[in-house]
Amino acid sequence: MAPSGEDPGPAADGAGRTCDGGAIPPRDLRLTQLALTTGLSPQVIRVWERRYHFPQPTRTAGGHRRYSQADAVALLQVAALVHAGFRPREALARVRDGRVSPLSPGTLTESLQRLLTAGDPGPYLQDLLRADAVMGFEQTLEAIVLPTLQTFSEAAEQGGIAVAQEHALAQVILVWLGASRAALRTPPARTGRVVLAAPGRHPHPLTLTAMELALTARGVPVTLLGSIMPPEAVGEAVRLWRPAAVFLCCASRSDRACVIRAAAGVRQLDPAPLCFLGGPGLGSPPAWATPLPERVTQAAAWVAAALGARSGAAVEPPAELQG
Question: Looking at the whole model, is its pTM more than 0.90?
Answer without folding.
Answer: no
